[in-house]
Amino acid sequence: MFRKILIANRGEIACRVIRTARSMGVATVAVYSDADANARHVAMADEAVHIGPAPVRESYLLPDRIIEAAKRTGAQAIHPGYGFLSENAAFARACKEAGLVFIGPPPSAIEAMGLKGAAKALMEKARVPVVPGYHGDDQTPELLAKEAERIGYPVLIKAVAGGGGKGMRRVDSAREFAAALAGAQREAANAFGDQKVLLEKYLIKPRHIEIQVFADSLGNAVHLFERDCSVQRRHQKVLEEAPAPGMPPEMRKAMGDAAVAAAKAIGYVGAGTVEFIADVSDGLRPDRFYFMEMNTRLQVEHPVTEMITGQDLVAWQLGVAAGGKLPLAQDQLKITGHAVEARIYAEDPQKNFLPSVGTLHRLRAPAEDTHVRVDTGVREGDSVTPFYDPMIAKLIVWDADRTSALRRMRQALGEYQIAGVTTNTTFLIELVSHHAFVGGDLDTGFIERFRADLLPPIEPAPIHVLALAALAVTLERRASVTQAASKSGDPWSPWSAVDGWRLNDQGWDELLMRERDSDILCRIEYLSGGALRVHARDAETVVQGVIDSEGGLDAVIDGRRQRAGIVRRDDDLVVLLPGETHRLSIIDPRAAGDLDEAGSGLLNAPMPGKIVQVLVEEGASVEKGQPLMILEAMKMEHTISAPGRGKVAKVNFKAGEQVPEGASLLQIEAEG
């Protein structure tokens, strides 16, 4: 076994590898960029080496710097994690030439599966079923359009060199093809440096089911069963589970055998995942699954496989890379129970899952035990930056059956408290609670199919939330006044009380709050014993309570106990309840004149990025929802659309320019 390894990655997966390495007595070396100098994976590792500025092209994607860091620290092997250089054959080869072990497959296997078109041709030779499509070298738009017609719409355009949903477009008709092709090629070039694409028949009701495979250098290969990754947004996985709901034993065997055959066909060594698409229009059938691609690395969702098999896949990786034999044979592996993984992202589902950046002012995860596991690379106080993937954590639950596992997932998601960025936790609760998901009616279009159910209009904060906010503000003011009074010469002065005292009248105050674009006037009556009667939005309630040292509010609302998380940053106040996050602003009426007026017509950048395309000119008339600009951020393209009918008064940036978050991109003058 190795004495020391370097992890050529960051965040959650780096922390995950460090945890197993430490349990095996293997020392670890982390690498980090400027943005990650204080990151969790850096703190966890035994050593850490700085490799460059924040952008990945200047740090985590530089093989020479990573290899130099390994040699300088005496590491014997490099674990690539996932993403970055994990599927880069040149990097794997460079490691070998430098006398380092690459903890992954041989370069030839990476190359064989790296180009999707060639990989599918190879799989056809190995008698692994593939989806009808076009995988040729001729990339002229005219030929690709003809091939799309031959395959039959709808078709899927996919980047040959990549994954993760980047460079992928569904096209439903010939008139959409040219624009979709240009967008896919542009996104592929930005993400992978290669704009080559392939075409596939788009299955109307597909399920994404993948098989975990493992092989050693002694000729042994096994599969560790399947994972269902059908629930996706933007072609990226959101929720994964193992085993796949409703999987017939004969189909599991057929898929497992096909996956092992795929691995053996390319001389595979290490952990890999063979991804299949299953046509479930007639249910799960052993003759209706097709090879999509093979990921020649450990997958993000590997924990669900670990939970149902009881195996540590990172430990398997280290053992195999050190020349060892697979720990178990196929007949020794078995499925126990059911596991589900939810990816906790800093993103706004209500804004088409737009990534959210900011500081994690509060981050409280559910307690871990034999049923609940949290894999994360961040801590409270860390920042989600525009440089890297916005995943905060992976929440994994296990139980004896799927129904019990989903119940645990709902409970664990409700226990998360996150403030400082917008997250998808409420969306995930809706997802795992949805009747169709619970019933196993899954396909890759699930989120779009049930979008109205999963993303209902945001309801205004109810009276109990406003009461908790009013109580938190009042308690904070009382604490501040009490502290100031204790330092004064007259701590018992009536002017030191926060009770809304008025001559010949019951004490009361007014508190003005804002929720999104709506102002809320709360009238607070001060009752005996420190209680408050809060009136707002034609409702009222009585509340009292205390704030603990960790920002938790223990309250009683109309006789019912309620615990909430409270996070106050300047004028922003976040109320955190089980499965709910309410963001409010405390408004000072004296400063109201300084507030921006709604409807200014300015369209601002939702995050830092690069303008890829400007679709309108100044003076052009636009309709509501019309695309105006395309912004590339976090390796994904985001469309800036017109909020209403109007005329383009000003375009402030041109294609190729970098823009900071909040920059005014265009100005639209409303019409009619």
From TrEMBL:
Keywords: ATP-binding, Biotin, Ligase, Nucleotide-binding, Transit peptide. InterPro entries: ATP-grasp (IPR011761), BC-like_N (IPR005481), Biotin_BS (IPR001882), Biotin_carboxylase_complex (IPR050856), Biotin_carboxylation_dom (IPR011764), Biotin_COase_C (IPR005482), Biotin_lipoyl (IPR000089), CPAse_ATP-bd (IPR005479). PROSITE patterns: ATP_GRASP (PS50975), BC (PS50979), BIOTIN (PS00188), BIOTINYL_LIPOYL (PS50968), CPSASE_2 (PS00867). This is Acetyl/propionyl/methylcrotonyl-CoA carboxylase subunit alpha. Residues 1-452 form the Biotin carboxylation domain. Its cofactor is biotin. Coiled coil: none annotated. Residues 589-669 form the Lipoyl-binding domain. Residues 120-322 form the ATP-grasp domain. It comes from Ferrovibrio terrae. CDD domains: biotinyl_domain (cd06850). GO terms for molecular function: ATP binding; ligase activity; metal ion binding.
